[in-house]
Every structure is written in structure tokens, then in C-alpha cells.
Amino acid sequence: MFNDLDPILHSQLRLSIVSILITVEEANFSFIKDTTKAAAGNISIQINKLQEAGYINVEKTFKNNYPNTAISITNKGREAFEEYVKSLQKYIYPQK
Amino acid sequence: MFNDLDPILHSQLRLSIVSILITVEEANFSFIKDTTKAAAGNISIQINKLQEAGYINVEKTFKNNYPNTAISITNKGREAFEEYVKSLQKYIYPQK
DNA sequence: TAAAGTAGTTAATATAATTAACCAAATATT
DNA sequence: AATATTTGGTTAATTATATTAACTACTTTA
Asked: Do the chains contact at B92 and A10, CB–CB below 8 Å?
């Protein structure tokens, strides 16, 4: 009846991050920080986990002399997100 | 942009339980156990948390000589679920 | 009456999320 | 030109959560 929910995505902050990345080509650390209002440390860790899972690409460069971490979603990440949403539907619309 | 997701509901097992209770008048422990496939101990704990939060009613009686735990959703629980779903929509359909 | 099953609970453990403290470099202030 | 502050992070420690293993208490069956 209830599919397992991908534990990588079933975390508020990681879901927020992926949710943002679904809508944009690329986002940097600061944008994620501003948008999610989460603490930088937390974001740093959750980005690592998403990268380890292969859900996002992380490119660290320098921009205007400052470190800049550019993040984008991978195909795997996009698919995982779609799967997660499908599974969730079964929870939130159990009448189906 | 992203509402906080009610941490009481943002747990796979608790969400499963509430999701079941949304569709039925009442469910007992065994039904929840069979439907969710979760371990009894885990269910026991999550039922306590949902009760503490006022999201469910728990009635312990004996049925055919056996202990029987009947569970039903409260108005508060139903509202929390609806709110949770609304918040989730913003995550899973960020284009909106 | 001994073994197996029902219906749970609790304590201990494993896992995950969060925060506090830190680092390195850049820029702003006195 | 020192020093304070800001940017953009990371890491270690803490806190919170979830899960499991072991147990309780009773019932039924062989």
C-alpha cells in the first residue's frame, strides 16, 4: 500500500534544496541559504549527502574572488524526485 | 517560500498511520501493523507520539479476551494532515 | 502443561538532523 | 597598516528521531 519514501529526499532541507534545483538551471550556496533560511552548516552537510547520492552536481569555483559553490540537479536526482512525489501521492490521497 | 513541514507528520510511519486513519472510521493495532508492514515496537512508539500530539484517539479495551487498541483520527489530526499536504504541495510543485 | 501465538511495551541502539565552533580569505574600518 | 567584519563555507559535537531486540502478560492449542 505505502511505498517507501526515499530517505534521501524525505528530509525537509534536502527536499527544499532539490525542490529549488528542479526549477532552476543552477543555484549557488548563498541562494540556497537565502531561500531556505537554513543554517549554512546544515546546508553544507545536506549538499554533501545529495551529492553522495548522485542527486546533484556540485562545482566549486571562485567568483569575484569568493568561493562559489554551484549546484545543479542530475538526471538521477530528477528521477528520484519524481518517484518521491509519486510515492507521496499514495500517502496524501489514500482514497485512490 | 517553503513552509515548515509538521515534524509529527513528516515521518514515514506516522504519515502512514494517519493516512490510514483518514480513510477509515477506526483501525486497530493489528490492522495498522498488517497494512504498514512496520515492526510492532515502532508502531507502538509512533502511536504514542501521535496521541501526545492530539492527532489520534487511542482506546485500549479487550476484544475476544485479547487486548485491542482502537485508533481513530481527531479533528486536530485531520486538520494537521490537510495542512501538511498543503505545505508539501509547495515543495513538490515549486513551479507554482 | 508445555509450546506457540496474540498484542503489545520498553530500553537500548543506530541513524539522522542540527548547531556551535571553527577556518581561510576578502573587504571595510580606524 | 593593523584590526574588525563579512563571505563562504567545513567539521566536530550535540540533540533529536527512528528502529530494533528483548521483554511482559496473557491466551490458545497440542
From this structure: no
Structural domain B26-90, CATH architecture:
Orthogonal Bundle (1.10)
DSSP A35: H
Whole-model pTM over 0.70? yes
Taking the domains of chain B in order of start, what are their residue ranges? 26-90
Q: Does A15 touch chain B (CB under 8 A)?
A: yes
Q: What's the CA dihedral at B44, B45, B46, B49 to 10 degrees?
A: 120
d(CA B85, CA B81): 6
Chain A from 26 to 45: CB within 8 A of any B CB: 35-36
Quick one: pLDDT at residue A85?
94
DSSP-derived 3-state class of residue A60: strand
